[in-house]
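For reproducibility, we list the full input for the S-adenosylmethionine complex.
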Amino acid sequence: MSFVEKWDELIDWDARAESEGQFFVDVLRARGKETVLDVATGTGFHSVRLTRSGFNVTSADGSATLLAKAFENGQKRGMILKTVQADWRWLNRDIQGKYDAIICLSNSFAHLHEGKDRRRALAEFYAALKHDGILIIDQRNYDAMFDHGFSSKHKYYYAVDKVTTEPEFIDEGFARFKYSFPDGSEYTLNMCPIRKNDMRRLLSEAGFERIRTYGHFQETYAEEDPDFFIHIAEKSSLHLVRWGGGTTAEGESDIREVGRELL
Ligand code: SAM
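The corresponding predicted structure, in tokenized form, follows.
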């Protein structure tokens, strides 16, 4: 059995959904988003949840095996997921159209090891979004691991308390995590850790105008507390100005709205 199948078998989707709450649904609904591209579909947890909540979801992943698993998981729950095999670095070659939102969840971005691949992937995400689209991307709190040592609160995010996770090795450029399963089997995954502010910088260098970072779904948090950070990166902040209720006199046009038309 592959790591993924084993992991999927152990995750109780209902418990995970409960632990995650309505955060992603609320963020998307509050901004009026409808079309969502899940670029790290994996076994389909978020694709299924968001489809069930009424969003028009496209499920992408670089792995055909995982997409097949996601499709099967969708079918079991009475839905047909729209799947696309696509590598983030060439995303726009394989997907069609532009999306209101992209999600890249469960520390997936740490699978990219090269700085140039990270920049390229973010540029592709940016290009696949509509002008006022948002990217929701999460990451482990590597800052806390570097600065205070490792502690696993995995169960809060994934609702998995049967698997222990510990880094076999970690430094600022590379991390190898060991996953130990109840039947005694062990798997290792290599990741490329990134500090929260480095991720925020990469997002803004990719062109995102406004980035908000939540710690375990909360807007305020002590830096070392959350196991995960979630960044919400807005492609354009112009529409926010308009939502803010700015007024123009009759016959006048707001330069920011003109700018928006040109985007
Ligand atoms: N989001 C899923 C969940 O919450 O259950 C888990 C995703 S898993 C941690 C990471 C996913 O990213 C894997 O399915 C992997 O195939 C995908 N991935 C990693 N690098 C990729 C790349 N360069 N292009 C496309 N997909 C990639």
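The CA atoms of residues 163 and 183 lie 10 Å apart. The chain has one domain: 2-141+195-262. Both points were considered when choosing residues for closer inspection.
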